[in-house]
Amino acid sequence: MSLAAILAGLATGIVLGIFGSGGSIVTTPALLYLLHVEPKSAIAMSLGIVAITATLTALQHWHKGNVNLKVTAVFGLFGIFGTYAGARLGVITPVVIQLTLFALVMYAAAWRMLRPARPHRSVGAAAVAVQDEVCSSGRCMVHIAGHGIVVGLLTGMVGVGGGFLIVPALVLLSGLPMKQAIGTSLAIVAIKSYGGFAGYVGDVPIDYPLMAVFTAVAIAGSVVGTRFASRLSGAALKRGFAVFLILVASYILANQIF
């Protein structure tokens, strides 16, 4: 691989480690423009690379207590079916539609993340207790399952792990703190990316040796990103994540227009 492709692999891992998403946003363009992989193959390979990288990065977060296993199980279980179906749809969807839809949803997610949070009625340990009770309620889990399907369909079709939608959903729906939302998102991204990759396998060519090398470089970057994320506050991560979404969405739309 070229130096630029190696740097892109490192960037993939770093972005995943810091924000719990965004790996495919770096990986797909790198495969397309730096390694000259065909668009459909690049989307499929990106899902495979992110699946493995996110798995290992999620394990790092789990050791730090930043993965909610119950939310991961519900969102991931329903999300993997939606992602597989979305990937099957993505095989026949024009790339311009996939990327434009991807950018528009990113804008929506960024707007939700930048909105001022509603103040809690209670603070401290009492607020955490209420939050945990709501997050474990049947109604909350139904909402998470529904979003798992919807996010899965969309992210499978556009060929990304979906963390840019999962993180806001976990913060806004289940009330998870930002750092725990990032760790949980990585676990969900890994599960759904495996489903999306499976949906493309057999219908598009896959360069497995290239995937292996890119994945190894991305894993190294994820270790750096995870360590860096642990030093940032939840509010800073939330703002940075939203700005990151806006910049990448603008870049994608600009490419489609010009």
From TrEMBL:
Keywords, sorted A to Z: Cell membrane, Membrane, Transmembrane, Transmembrane helix
Residue spans crossing the bilayer: 41-59, 71-89, 95-114, 149-173, 208-229, 236-254
Domain of life: Bacteria
InterPro entries for this protein: TM_pro_TauE-like, TSUP/Inactive_protease-like
Pfam families: TauE (PF01925)
Chief site of localization: membrane
Localisation: Cell membrane; Membrane
Gene Ontology CC annotations of this record: plasma membrane
Membrane topology classification: Multi-pass membrane protein
Kinase is among the record's keywords: no
Sequence similarity: Belongs to the 4-toluene sulfonate uptake permease (TSUP) (TC 2.A.102) family.
Protein name (Swiss-Prot/TrEMBL): Probable membrane transporter protein
Organism (species): Thiohalobacter thiocyanaticus
